[in-house]
Hints:
Helix 1 runs antiparallel to helix 3, helix 1 crosses helix 7 and helix 3 runs antiparallel to helix 4. The protein is mostly helical. The longest helix has 28 residues. 30% of the residues are buried.
Amino acid sequence: MLLAFVVFAQGIATPSPLSSQAEMTGAFPDRARGIQRVTRHPQNLGFALFGLAHCAANPGFGDWIFFGGFVVYALVSAVHQDRRARAAGPDAVRRFQDQTSLLPFGAILSGRQRLAAREFSPIALWVSVALFVVVRAFHGRIFGGFGD
């Protein structure tokens, strides 16, 4: 779950050319930065990690249906967003897609990107760690689990 928090927060901290804000303003970042070098859909990856972590911790069928839904949503949403952006987006979006990957570390392993740790937001890292600690501390009282 800590990884899910970190990836999600890094995605929020790094403006994406696939965002609605970029589409409305026409301000498309010129290249991938930070977490986008790992995946062009960091928030979707965060949701998928959230679902996978909860499926691993909860053996019940109903839990798997519920938390597995987050994984399915993350994957379907990312694929849909890619297809829509490729079909209707400007050239800047298509260039961004060509230099990044839907699959985590795909662009790095294929040589289209390199991991640049200095581009990651330290503020997003510390905020995500703090949120993780708070959620972990109060999870049992709010959501159940961890011995209730």
